[in-house]
Amino acid sequence: MSYDVNPIIDRLCETFPVCFNRSTPKPLRIGLGEEVMALAGVHPALTDLSRTMIRRSLKVYTGSFAYRKAVAAGGPRYGLDGQPAGEVTPDQQAFAKTPRKKPEATTSPGSDESTSLPPSPAPKLPPIDRMALLQEIIAMAIPGKLDVTLKINELPQAKPASAQTMLFAVQADGRTVVVEVKNKMWNNLKAAAENYPQWVAAITGKMGEGVKGGFRLENPAVQVFEKKLKLDAAATPAEPKAPVPQLPPAPAPPPAPAAPLIDRPKLSLKGRSDPPS
Fold it and tell me: C-alpha distances in angstroms, 195 versus 185, 191, 192, 201?
């Protein structure tokens, strides 16, 4: 399915202006893409977008000349809140300065127009030992970070873990995730549960130490959104219609007057004699 990503990029710039900007972009925090994709269908401004649509839009945004220039300059990276979150490494600066390769083209004899070469067919690979391949790939693994996003729509039961934090647990896809949030984040969850008929919270963090049946979520960040109720036309009872007043029947027209009877004299032949011939 083809679509224009530019309106989506414009929407990201309008929704998160301290993070996204076309003319003066900032280097984005590592893992921010996963955080934004987790808001697909959740954030009020992104309800009609899918993870794939946001991922493709971010790919175009971070591949632009202005963004690559910002990364090449180095300095801090930034999160959705506009706060610094990490630094651009020298390797990342060097990669951003590398010229992007243009697709090769060939010119047909006797023609001034360039046409792209058709892709060569993929070579057929011999059967491989997938277990051996898996072990080889694992041995070549590079370091990275794993971000986890939880979505909840009800207030969990929590206990104070310290004077500044609250502790609760979430059962997500059969795994227990233990979350410790600051009191300010917990108050935001409580306010949503008290004031919104329907709401959803996206809790993003990193996978921490293992616990029984799951793990702890490190450095959690909480974003709460109100979900607007959609009225179901079929379920809404229709208003009773006002009764239509019944008009009295129209009176029958009076009968037409009968034609008057005219008395005409009757002729009698009695006592009349014929004239003499």
Answer: 15, 6, 5, 14
Ranges 50-54, 124-128, 207-211, most confident? 50-54
Show the tokens assigned to 184. Answer: 């300010």
Q: Give the other-Cβ count within 10 Å of 14's Cβ.
A: 10
CB 116 within 8 A of CB 103: yes
Which pair of tokens denotes residue 140? 């070549």
- Three-state DSSP state, 274: coil
- How far apart are the C-alpha atoms of 96 and 32, rounded to whole Å? 18
3-state helix, strand, coil in the chain (%, to 5): 25, 25, 50
pLDDT digits (tens, 9 = 90+) for 67-96: 999 999 999 999 999 999 999 999 998 888
Return the H-helix or E-strand segment holding 191: helix 183-195
Distance CA 270, CA 41 (A): 118
> Of the candidates 204, 199, 198, 206, which has an alpha carbon nearest to the alpha carbon of residue 224?
199
Amino acid at 260: P
65-72 vs 90-97: helix axis angle to the nearest 10? 140
Distance in angstroms (rounded) separating the CA atoms of residues 103 and 65? 17
Q: What is the pTM of this model?
A: 0.44
Backbone angles phi, psi at 234, to 5 degrees: -70, -30
Distance CA 57, CA 12 (A): 9
3-state SS class at 59: helix
The first and second tokens of residue 217, run together, are: 């979520």
The number of beta carbons lying within 10 Å of the beta carbon of residue 200 is 19
6-15 vs 51-62: helix axis angle to the nearest 10? 90
Phi and psi at residue 193, in whole multiples of 5°?
A: -65, -30
Residue 78 and residue 85 in contact, taking contact as beta carbons nearer than 8 Å = yes
